[in-house]
Structures are given as structure tokens and as C-alpha cells.
Amino acid sequence: MTEFDDGRAGERSRELMTRAQKRIPGGVNSPVRAFSGVGGHPPFIRKASGCHVITEDGAALVDYVGSWGPALIGHAHPEVVDAVTKAARDGLSFGAPTAAEVEFAELICELVPSLQGGMVRLVSSGTEATMSALRLARGATGRSKIVKCDGGYHGHADMLLAAAGSGAATLGLPGSAGVPENAVADTVIVPYNDLEAVAAAFEAHADDIAAIIVEPVAGNMGCIPPREGYLAGLRELCSQHGALLIFDEVMTGFRVALGGAQAHYEVTPDLTCLGKIVGGGMPVGAYGGSTTVMRHIAPLGPVYQAGTLSGNPLAVAAGLTTLKILARERPHEALTSTTTRIVEGIGAAAAEAGVPFSSHQVGAMFGGFFRAEAPNNYAEAKQCDLDAFARFFQEMLARGVYLAPSQFEAAFVSTAHDEAAIELTLTAAKEAFAALAG
Ligand code: HOZ
Q1: Which of 103, 204, 206, 294 is the most buried (most CB within 10 A)?
Q2: What is the DSSP string of 96-130?
């Protein structure tokens, strides 16, 4: 080992990848993990603690993937691990109501502004949350069309795999094979941050739009914040036309503020989708809104949605404990300033090396772009120098910094990112940009 832990795949990771590729498509259980966007092989992760992941080759890496968002209070937080361990001793799954899920629902509804006085339904992933919220929106309005943004990613339900960001963007896929044309026939695509396009969609489809689903801060085309007035404009258009506004806060929920992006930007959606942090590292998703809308869901109403592992006691223990820690410690101001230091430090390193680079940050999420001007939508994000990103990614990994292996993903900071981690990151960034420029 050098001064930094070289995080590139060593012998053990390569060996595992060779075995994995024989039994798991592409060797991975989710496409971006295969490193197609950056080349080379992924390091396999043995364990994680605080702001570090430890690879099978023995390197300790400063982690900005954070399990793609959930690890806001660091990996393996002792309180969360204790809660899950205790819950496991009491039984892994009942498929029946529990006291803990009631407390969890109450706390979620207290923390997320648009759910105050409303209701929330627990599911097992972000994909399930968005898929169910859209079914609810269609059921509640009696309309069929949905509007989503170009480069927006809301999980892998058929109707949402059109012009999707994240893994689809990384692989350059405009859609997905296996999605019949009629599954996306009612999906209207608009550019992110473009209110006129949304107004035009309403004009074209008048009373047929059930909902607009949007990541209030786009996180799957890199991290791109809403332009001033964009979210408020969406709110207004939806109210005007009787459509529901759905915030996909799977990434932003509990991250950009305790109450998510809706608290940060003070815009109230009709439905909110949650995932990632809400599960504290376990598979949890949730969707909620006012009692009036949520009463359409079975068994109260005719919109069906169910799940054997929904409200699973281990998952609830992890999520509930994580939210209690956040509500108790209120770390968001400190998280934002840590993130700002990192973003500004990386930007300064790029400027010093003369590499065209820009960034966006909202709270504890950020994105760096190999483009002089930070993008405002997916079309602009696609203009980034992807080769430069891939080289930077590999240089950072070689110096012990684990970023998401795609220009079209966001970076996540946790409360466990300490002085040493920040220093290491910024030193690595200086060297990485110098290597790119040289
Ligand atoms: N699409 C996910 C992030 N935006 C990737 C999740 C994963 O590979 O675990």
C-alpha cells in the first residue's frame, strides 16, 4: 500500500468478477456497478464503516457512493446496527402489522412537510414507491398520461423506462428492450428545468395528464438543481390543470434537508416518493400524500398495491433508527458546509490544472462535470467530456477515493466524512487533475 489505498480492482476482485460473470449477468446485480461508464473492473466490497468502504483487496476507500445515497450517517452506524440486530432476534418477517411500523409512519409524516396530517405506505424499494405513486395518481384522477423529464430516473417500471437517466444514461440506452410501445405510450417526456415544455404538454394533452413525476433535484444525470421558480412553476401548472405533482425524493429525501427538497425549496407536492435514506441501508421505499389522495389505496379504496416484505421489521428498525438520529442530531447545516468544502476544493484543483470543470451542489449531494458550464438539463449533461470523467474517476480510485462510476450519477457526503477524509479527497483531486492535464 502507498500513502493512499489503491482502490482499483486487485487480484481478488478480478477473480471474483470472473466467477460473477458466469452466474450473474455482467457480474453485477445492478448495471452501473459493472464500470461500463469508466472502464476497468470494479473493486468488490468486503465491508464498510463510517465514510469508508473496504475492498476485497484490502484497500480502505473514502466513499462518495454511500450505497447510492442511503449512508447519510455513515456505514454501519452502531445505533442502527444494534436496532437491526435486536429486531433480527425477534423474527425476520411476519407479514403482519407491527408497532414499529406505526411509529415509523408517524415519524416520516412528521418530518416530510407534504405528509404532515397525511398518510404514508411502506414498500421495499424506490422503484416500487414511484410505480405505486403513479398508479395511485392515475386511479385518483381517472387520467392516463404521466409527464417525466428527459434524463430523469424513477426506477425501472416499464412506463418510466423512457429517456431514463442513471444506468440507462450510462449505457447510452434511450429506453429498454422488453418495454412494449404501449407501456410508454402514455409517458410524455419534457426537458428538465423547462416550464414552457410542461405548459405545452398540458396544452397538447389537456385533461389527460394524471401526474408529473420529477426529481426535485435531478440526481440521475449527475446532480442538477432546479432553476429558480421551476418547482413552484410545476406546482402551479399541476394545480391549474388538476394533475398531481409527484416529487421523487428517493435521493433527496432527508438528504438535502431533514424534510427533503420540498422543505429546502418550500414547494409542496401532492405525492412524495421515498427510498434510500428512509431505509437506513435496508430495502425500504415509501410513498405518501394527503389523506384525501391516500384513501384511494386498498384496502380503503380501489387502487391495489401490496407486498409480503412491506414494513419488514429489520428494514423498519434500520429506517426508524436512522430517522430518529437525524431528527435528534439535525446534522444538515454541518453536512452542507462539509460538502461545500469538498466541492470548492475539487473545483479549485481543476482550475489550478486548467481542466474545464464545473459542479452543482445541493446540501449533501453534488455532481462534478467535465464541462466549463454546469449543465441545467440532460441534453447539456450529455455534452460533458465522458473520457475525461473516466480518467479522473480512475485517478481518484487509485488514490483511495470511491466516486460513482458514471458522469450521470450524483456524489453523496455523510456525517462520517471527517477532516482526514476531506484532506485525502482534495489531495487526490489535485493529483488527479494534474495527471489529466499532464
Ligand atoms: N441506479 C442506481 C443509482 N442511481 C444504481 C444503484 C446500484 O447500482 O446499486
Answers
A1: 294
A2: S--HHHHHHHHHHHHHSGGGTTSEEEEESSHHHHH
